[in-house]
Amino acid sequence: MHNSPAIVAVGRTKFGEHYGKEPEKLIEESWLAASNECSIERKDLQACYMSDCFLPITNKLGLEEGFLSELTELHVPMEVTRSFSAALQTACHAIQAGVYDTVLVGGIEKMTDRWDKIRDDLMLLDDPWSYFAGGTPESNHELMLRAYIKKHNITGQNLEKLSLALAQITVKNHANATKNKYAQFQRKISIEQVLAARKAEHKQLGLFDYAPISDGATTVVLTSAGAAKKRTDRPVQVLCNRSATDYLNYPARDDLSHFLAAQLAMKNACEAAKMTPSDFEVVEVYDQSTMMEMVSLEDLGFCEPGTAWRNVQESCQSGLNCYEVGDRKVYVNTNGGLKADGNPLGATGGAQIFEIFSQLRGEAGDRQVKSNDGLPQNGCVLEFEGFGTKAYVTILGGLNH
Amino acid sequence: MSSEPIERRVSYLGDRLRATRCQQCGKEYFEVRDYCSNCGRKSYGKMDSIDLLFDKGKLELATFINEPTNKFTKLGSYVYGIVSFHDGKIRVPARLTDQIQCNGDTVDPASLEGRDVIPRFRRRYSVAKSDVVPTISLAFTLADEYYPHQEYKVMKPTKEYELPGIVGYGAYSSRFRIKEEGLERAVPFIDEDAVTAAVEAGKLALIHSAIDSTWIGKVYAGSESNPYAVKPIASKVAQVLKLGEEDGDLQSVDAVDTEFACKAASSMFKDACALVSYPHSGIKYAMVIGTDNSQAAPRGCPGGELDMYVGFGGAAFIFGKQDVIAEVEAWYSCTSDTPDFWRRDGEPYPMHGGRFTGDPAYHKHVRKAASKLMERCNLKAGDINYFVPHQPNPSFPIRVAKDLGFKEHQFMPSMQMTKFGNTYSGASLIGLAAILDIAKPNERILVASYGSGAGSDAYLLHTTSQILDKRKHQKVTVKFQAENPFIEYVDYTTYRRLKSGM
Fold it and tell me: Which domains are delineated in chain B?
């Protein structure tokens, strides 16, 4: 157990538009927050695992590793991946292998600098034929919603309820974000606003159903369980992380109504951690759209296929800020999710880890989840790369309260 | 900027919708695959190449895009979704094209799900004027509307003729029209141009002829609105329609573009005939295409007078000596250096000589070519069933026909200019297609094209009994397109916008 990975500190910037800040300022800010928390110096770092999805394209920044080396005066090994979960997973493997005991995992993205081109850039995450045929970053979400509705034969009043449930997801996420000082949108929105936006665009998903584009950075200090003791008396264990992949080409996938990669990653993670979905009280899902949050509840095994909208709709109707599944309560996207907290691609997963870390340690402030016997024991994070092309599930826990 | 190697690969696969089928397990893939993902290395070399251009698909899922990515903004709003082929074995992303007023008030994407669609060869998106024009066939139209699905069935030729002639043909025009002062003119959708019309016309000609596209040894494309000053239309046609035997990613076919104002294509009829007749050419069939998105300056600008008459469309004719529907019996051409209409290099719109385009230009040449040919063949106007003159406006062709002694029933059936506009290189060809659509066996047709600059080609055609047999292959006749219930009329502003393209 000495080599099992543990998170000793997390840090992040506010997500949103940081016009005046260079990408390195954002990295610095989140690193300072994390390093202050666990009194670590950068000379203590043995390696850095960074993630950014397309910083070289959006900010004309080539080899990020060299850039970071110059900034920090560090010459340790550094690697860049495209999502925070991927960086975290690689870092965990290194710790588990006993190569290092203290590493930095960081994520950064700066998207608002390219406001006019960012939707084209985002198409890089889809298959090229979808782009060539005229697809947009939103279109697959809408097609998957259509596929879901058809597969589960949802019609009439049920379809209206499903539509309402999706609106309630975003209203819930915005409400959560009002208690998150780092969130991009710290304001409430109403069901009527969500529906009006859809109506104006003549679409099933409207402006308020989609996550924004954002700037931001996140940092996690990851150590071995042995080294963690020096940094904090309450490390959060990375109990397991698993990932899975699926076709880049969404139309060619067998099931157009669900994310196979998410199902596999969760199944494998639960098996490895000897857990079931009912072990998680706090969950961060990758809600690039409200549809994604709904479908992910099913793909992760919290709800039966084709039923999540019922759980969402009934829970939100009775004024809960969590989803009731059977006799259990699942708190999903307590930080506001990608929708309200923000979605700076490479940093997003870090904010998800940040949230579960804070919840498990009881440091989530106004949005702290309390279960019957105190603080939540375990949490999990689902992060995607692309439109369900890669899925990462990270299970956190191991704090004995 | 465009990246040419990528462009080559994308259009190579996407224009024809090339796909692959595993011989062992039957799994199908969009794109070319050397082996099957199911069967692994056992399937290497056992993959059949298929393609979907002539196929019919089904719109499985649909949504509505009102905020496209940057290069697609000229398309405005459109329906986008997933189309499946072969009962879902292949699924591809798809844009529905040919929709102008596409918004949530007029279109409910979900209601279109389950409808049959057919792939259309179109421009993909906008690029800078200096770049390669990207194309793709992941654009679809509803099969029960303007352009229906037709099976492309290859048949073994049954009869060899002494003279070469037309073995198949197809005329293509868009579903949009502008109607002004009794004239209807075809308007391309914004993703169409002379190249896309050439391919669509060629596709129709293949379907009608029932010959294998690989038997074609040469393709000529005549146009004066090729989007490129340098780069042929014919090479695109050859690749998309797979003309000639495929050899790796090359087609064993000769392809060339020709230019002579509106007679660029008709001039090549005789070359095609000569080629298929020459015993050592090794070429059994040749395709001639006339295609134009006829340009005209906006009204009020110099040259803007043409704007009242220009149309859009093209026609393709396949020549050979087997299963001929109309033998080419004789021809006569005349030429003079007459500057009645021209477009200087780099200029977007042509200029013309006003009244000078009439008597000393059009009338002189067409009259000369037609009368000389009749004289040579010892025929009088009364011996000919149909006369097909070039049609730049509604009055010139009628006057020349009357001058030559033809009666209305001989020339009016070929008058398509009032339905599609002046389609420049396609004009006399669409007229000829309209006649071949209705002609009986053993009838004589006199075609007289005209090209400014100037010259005229006259041909004497003689229909055979097979004209009736092959007619069954073609639903998309000239009349079908002229009187189609799915035609959409546009106003002047929309017409100019669509015509200017992406």
Answer: 4-17+52-142 (no CATH), 165-500 (3.40.47.10)
